[in-house]
Amino acid sequence: MKLFDVYPLYNVTPISAKGIEVWDDKGEKYLDFYGGHAVISIGHTHPHYVKRIKDQLDQMAFYSNSVQNPLQEAVAEKLGVLSGCEEYDLFMCNSGAEANENALKMASFHTGKSKVIAFNNGFHGRTSAAVAATDNPSINAPINKQQEVTFLALNDFDAFEKAITSDDYCAVILEAIQGVGGLDEPTTAFYQFIAEKCKENNVVLIADEVQSGYGRSGKFFGFQHHGVQPDIISIAKGMGNGFPVGGVLIHEKFTPSYGLLGTTFGGNHLACAASLAVLEVLENENLIKNAAELGAYFKTKAAEIPEIKKVKGRGLMIGLEFDFEVAELRKKMIVEQHMFTGSAKNKKLLRFLPALNITKADIDLFFDGLKKAL
Questions:
Q1: CA 23, CA 25: separation in Å to the nearest integer?
Q2: Is Acetylation there in the keyword field (predicted)?
Q3: What number does CATH give the domain 14-46+286-373?
């Protein structure tokens, strides 16, 4: 048997990593400024993270959600305090797509409706309703296209008001900072307008924080830059630092019932250990503050490079926009400079999504490598 060939791969085989340093099977060292799509939030093989998972593995790796698991309660309590979202309940799952799937399902249960408003260049996952709400026809199969989704331009007040008042919608879903789409953001005025109109029209507001959450933007959640309160918040990526885990924060105004949502693997003992380790490191090492401060430092360094036409994003969720397509530049960064970076739907954008505990010295190394590659 061979692998189903769906990924274009660089000729690099990582076998070990620590912090932002990654070594391949030939002993070559690389610097990871992409974190596997913003997943590595506290650095590769962080000692506290490794110990937490090893200790849990020695005790118990898994049991289903048919028994009590106090670790889930510990995750919910810690997450509520650190994020400032104590008025929400936590449902744990396994990925960002599953988080958004359950968020949309809850919105539909709550309203009794099925149509969704999403935004151009948004990305919410690759499963049923989540991929239908993703603005990429090439990954939407006919079975997904049965979902009714209206796509609108970000920051178009008139189009949004016309849409939400002209039809029956269950949900509006948006990213505070678009990841795959290219680091575009709703303005504060627009996000607040969305929240206001959702409330007026009894539509559920879903904040997709799968990539922008967990401190990456310089606040715990990206929507917190805009002074809004979503009804549902989806989380994943940085939540487990590489362990597959996701979650849905559901406002306490929603009423749960047995069987409403469910999962076999979600919130298992190892996932909880990983999640607790991440939250503890975020708190103990002040990594959200570090993300905000280093994001500002990154932008001052970027301003020194004339080839960079625009810097997009917040904190350590940053895109560098050039006046040329960056595929060759990204290849040079990994092959010649031994640095991992990311691409986007915007082919002129280079994405920078490192662990939140990087240093100014690490950013200096990134820009040294970028200048050489340019």
A1: 7
A2: no
A3: 3.90.1150.10
* Residue 276: pLDDT over 90: yes
Question: What does the pLDDT read at residue 167?
Answer: 82
- pLDDT at residue 311 greater than cutoff 90: yes
- Alpha helices by DSSP H, the chain: 35-38, 47-59, 70-83, 96-111, 128-132, 157-166, 188-200, 269-284, 287-302, 327-335, 360-373
Q: Is 338 left (phi over 0), alpha (psi -120 to 50) or beta?
A: left
DSSP 136: -
pLDDT score at 222: 98
Span 234-247, pLDDT tens digits: 999 999 999 999 99
- Reference 232, options 89, 29, 20, 86; nearest CA is 89
> What sign for the dihedral angle of Cα 324, 176, 193, 203?
positive
Q: Are 63 and 264 in contact (CB under 8 A)?
A: no
Residue type (1 letter), 329: L
> CB–CB of 350/343 below 8 Å?
yes
- Quote the strand ranges of 176-253, DSSP E: 204-208, 232-235, 246-251
Cβ atoms of 204 and 231 within 8 Å: the answer is yes
Q: What is the dihedral of CA 190, 200, 248, 36, to 10 degrees?
A: -20
Give, rounded to a whole angstrom, the gap between the first and last alpha carbons of the chain.
41
Where are the chain's structural domains?
Answer: 14-46+286-373, 48-284
**Separation of alpha carbons 250 and 233, rounded Å:** 7
Exposure string over 17-39, b if 16+ CB within 10 A, otherwise e: bebbebeeeeeeebbbbbbeebb
Q: Which residue pairs from 196-199 have beta carbons closer than 8 angstroms and sit at least 24 positions apart in sequence?
A: 197/160, 197/161, 197/164, 197/165, 198/164, 198/172, 198/231
Residues 59 and 307: their CA atoms lie apart, in Å, by 53
Residue 32 has phi, psi (to 5 degrees) of: -95, 100
